[in-house]
Amino acid sequence: MYSNAYNNDYFMKARRLIENKDFKKAYNFLQGINDRSSEWYYLTGLSAMNIGYYEEGEDYLKRAKFMEPNNKEYAYAYNRYNNYRNNYDRRSYDYNRNRRYDSNGCCCCCGDDCCSDLCTLYICDSCCECCGGDLCTCF
Description:
Elements: H1 9-19, H2 23-31, H3 38-50, H4 54-67, H5 72-99, H6 114-130
């Protein structure tokens, strides 16, 4: 369907810029191309993502994948971005969950990270006792 786009010298130049990690130059170069084929959307999406235009990059990658659903390169790039984003969301949720008051997960009433602090204190006390000292007499 869009096979002639792959042989286009403009897209080959943009690919070289991206391979050389010159993403901003590739993005600016692609903005001057009027041929908005799936290859254009893919390359623009890659360069946009790598200069921090994540939403725009995601939209372009999604469009390239939609225009050529059987193109494995486009599908891989889009799925890789989605996996990265989902992993980031999951990591940030888990990190922030430890920082929020969670009545099911906290053994004390303060709702802060005091449970974690108490565990750290207990470990430090145990290590100190192994060496003959006693950091906290109540453990």
